[in-house]
Amino acid sequence: MATGPPPSAAKLYRPNRFVSLPAELDPDTYDSSPEKRRAEAERLAIRSRLKRQYQLQLNNPSRPAIIEDPALLRWVYAKSMNVYPTFRPTPRTSFLGAAYALGPLLFWIFVLKADRDRKEKRIQEGKYKRPFSVF
């Protein structure tokens, strides 16, 4: 009673809810429809046209001082003007905000209070003579 060769690992693999499907076994990777392939080819053509246009502007001997790259402009806008949608207040960021805001303030309060107490103690012991100051 020969059962035949054992099934391959790809046939035995079942997706786990804790682990995503590897790209080699994902049907979206290797089994793309003609519409998907056409859309990818169109995106690749647009990207290559933009790259060619940028290279022509870059290598132009009489080019303007600034070459505007639309992708770079979009990236700069997203990075600088659109900050808050990517920020998530967590206990760590709240703690760091409080530490950076209150930490230096509390440090200088402690330093100045300790200095004032030290001077006051020396004055009471008679070891420190207050200098005359108009101000």
TrEMBL record:
GO terms for cellular component: mitochondrial inner membrane
Protein keywords: Electron transport, Membrane, Mitochondrion, Mitochondrion inner membrane, Respiratory chain, Transmembrane, Transmembrane helix, Transport
Keyword Transport: yes
Topology within the bilayer: Single-pass membrane protein
Transmembrane region(s): 94-112
Major subcellular location class: mitochondrion
Role noted for this protein: Accessory subunit of the mitochondrial membrane respiratory chain NADH dehydrogenase (Complex I), that is believed not to be involved in catalysis. Complex I functions in the transfer of electrons from NADH to the respiratory chain. The immediate electron acceptor for the enzyme is believed to be ubiquinone.
Family membership noted in the UniProt record: Belongs to the complex I NDUFB4 subunit family.
Subunit structure and binding partners: Complex I is composed of 45 different subunits.
Record's protein name: NADH dehydrogenase [ubiquinone] 1 beta subcomplex subunit 4
